Amino acid sequence: MKLKQFLLTVCTLIVAVIGFAKVGHAQSVSYQTYKYGTSTTSMADGYYARPATVTVSNGAYVVTMTIRTATNLSAWPVVVNSIDGQAPQNVTKTQSGGYYLYSYSFTTKDLSGVISSSISINVPGVYKANHNISFKFDTSSLPALSGSTSSTSASGANSSSATAAAGVANGSSSSTSGSNDPQLSQKLKKLESQASSQSSAAKAKESRLARSTIAQNDRVQEQSQKNQTLYYFVLVGGILGLLIVIAAAVYFVWSAKKQIPRH
Length: 263
Known about the structure:
- By secondary structure, the chain is of the alpha+beta class.
- It has one domain (2-144, 188-259): Immunoglobulin-like, CATH 2.60.40.
- The protein contains three helices and nine strands; from the N terminus they run H-E-E-E-E-E-E-E-E-E-H-H.
- It has helices at 2-24, 151-177, 182-259; strands spanning 27-29, 31-35, 48-57, 60-70, 78-83, 89-96, 99-108, 114-123, 127-137.
- Strands 1-3-4-7-6 form a five-stranded antiparallel sheet. Strands 2-9-8-5 form a four-stranded antiparallel sheet.
- Strand 3 (48-57) and strand 4 (60-70) form a beta hairpin.
- Helix 1 runs antiparallel to helix 3.
- The two termini are 22 Å apart.
- The chain crosses the membrane at residues 230-254.
- Residues 1-26 form the signal peptide.
- Residues 22-153 form the NEAT domain.
- InterPro entries: NEAT_dom, NEAT_dom_sf.
- Residues 166-221 are annotated as: Disordered.
């Protein structure tokens, strides 16, 4: 009777450990990187390692992302200025093999909408600029938050839209007020032409830099997913092996006690 109770206790403990490991482990979530305000893939997409990891803490999602860049682009050439209206949290800078890794997290109660971010790219002597990008996460595997709302994200989006509209209106007003001056009009056209040329050159440089890392990031991402799968197999196999050893030890002790003659 005592043996059965002991084995039942051990089995319950093992099941609890496995359940805790599954609950405590972060969820892997895929995502897309877009040019700000569009559904076109951003050239910065190649810098972002997949998947992101998401945990639930204090009634909110904590999302951890990693930017991976080749060491030949200089140390951590891509950094995050802001994401979802907040400064990046838990920023760590490490080096692994031929890559610089920039990991950070942010907290949100709504991942179903578009998450906007501002980043800085600085490759010395090659390219330097700030960019606004957007992320769309696959939330199909995430648990729902109790009492979660999207009001914060919605209000942020409305605020951003209003600010952008005001900027466009102001820009249009300035251009109109000086349109009667021929010299000013020529200067404006010249500046617009220069800005267009610089923008095209910048986009071309950004495209080359991003594409040079896409293949490398894909290989590393594939290896990371394999390692994660192996981790679960090793964990479950180790627990089952431990259970077998304990059961065998209890059985041998029990058998030995039965063979001892009673007086």
